[in-house]
Design brief:
Blueprint: H1 5-31, H2 36-62, H3 65-86, H4 91-116, H5 130-133, H6 135-155, E1 162-164, E2 168-170, H7 172-183, H8 186-212, H9 217-251, H10 253-260, H11 267-292, H12 296-320, H13 327-349, H14 351-358, H15 361-368
Antiparallel strand pairs: 1-2
């Protein structure tokens, strides 16, 4: 119910702050050895980032991409300007400026959400009851985000890892390379949103309209082909765009690292990170397709496999030595995508059975009874 949107947003923000703020206060306040200004700015940045993730859940319903873009653009400009202005104060000033930019983005998005849903705040914590019903969604989100980070956690056990301020562990040769590799998929992610929000979503709705309208088998089959064609077209566009960007990044890696002043020994890690990010982006496309068809448990199994595979392969590369760094993420992302893509093709080929049997609530309830 859209009337409960404002209350749900405020409730989710309150729950996030209640659970995450104490964690940030403990870590930055007691575990990290830094000045009071740095600690306060880091805590603010952490909480604001968590709030932005909550607000981002509501963005897909707004469809006002111009306002969303301006919110992020104005916030990041504010963060940059404030960071430059406060730079004489050192790390505390830079973090405070960045936090100011995050605050601008958050307040702009929250204001836009309340403008879109001008309803009174009611039942702010009603959504908590749905965790029991949709526990697999929560588990999927946890496993997916853990899968993204698990290779970093494992690589931080490397003998080359560094510890700053008493508790901030990093492996610069790996972390900086993987960060740059992730940046290469930003254009594909923007295109991905456009594809999902337009062609695929329209074909998806058309297919289920035929079902609800008791369309003939021929019309249902035509709608199914439309869904398959939209998925295939989206994949082709993503592969061409991201493949070209990945190839360009791999080819120009020496120039990129020279311009950024990074060590050339990181180039191999970066290249395998770029390839891993390519298949990671394609995997995300498949997971979103599964989400549209409510295949929650299947998606959970896939992201759990991604988590275990990334952990195991990263641990193996850590044991093998520096020259193998980066292989773990690449191999796990590639293997998970290959499995997910094969399953998706089979599901789309049997889309009527999927809609009438596998995800049909009446059939599922009868089977559980």
């Amino acid at each position: 119910d859209a009337t409960e949107g404002p209350g749900m947003l405020l409730g989710a923000l309150a729950l996030m702050a209640a659970t995450q703020a104490p964690l940030a206060v403990w870590f930055y306040g007691f575990a990290v050895d830094a000045s009071l200004g740095v600690k306060l700015a880091a805590i603010a940045s952490y909480v604001l980032t968590g709030a932005l993730w909550i607000a981002a859940v509501f963005l897909s319903t707004l469809k006002d991409f111009r306002a969303i873009t301006w919110s992020f653009a104005s916030g990041m400009f504010t963060g940059f300007a404030a960071g430059v202005w406060l730079a004489p104060h050192g790390a505390a000033g830079l973090l405070a400026g960045f936090s100011a930019g995050l605050a601008v983005v958050l307040f702009a998005l929250v204001a836009r959400i309340f403008a879109e849903y001008p309803y009174p705040v009611v039942r702010p914590f009603a959504f908590v009851a749905y965790f029991r019903r949709y526990w697999d969604l929560a588990a999927q989100a946890f496993c997916y985000n853990a899968a993204i980070w698990v290779d970093k956690w494992i690589m931080w056990l490397s003998p080359e890892a560094e510890t700053e301020a008493g508790a901030l562990v990093s492996l610069p040769v790996y972390d900086s390379s993987m960060f740059l590799a992730y940046l290469t998929i930003l254009p594909a992610m923007a295109l991905f949103v456009l594809i999902v929000e337009t062609a695929f979503f329209e074909r998806y709705l058309a297919f289920f309209r035929e079902i609800s309208g008791h369309g003939t088998w021929a019309r249902l089959r035509a709608a199914q082909i439309g869904v398959i064609d939209s998925v295939g077209e989206g994949f082709r566009v993503l592969v061409v765009l991201q493949g070209a960007l990945s190839y360009l990044a791999i080819l120009t890696a020496p120039a990129i690292f020279a311009a950024l002043g990074l060590g050339f020994q990181q180039i191999a890690i970066f290249r395998f990170g770029v390839l891993g990010a390519l298949f990671h982006a394609l995997l995300l496309f498949v997971l979103i397709v599964f989400a549209y068809f409510d295949l929650r448990k299947l998606a959970l199994k896939l992201v759990f496999f991604f988590l275990v595979a990334n952990a195991a392969s990263s641990a193996a590369t850590l044991w093998a030595g520096f020259e193998w760094y980066g292989y773990g993420y690449f191999l796990s992302a590639t293997a998970t995508f290959a499995i997910a893509y094969a399953i998706m093709l089979r599901k789309l080929a049997n889309l009527p059975y999927l809609a009438f049997v596998e995800i049909n609530p009446s059939v599922q309830n009868r089977g559980s009874a």
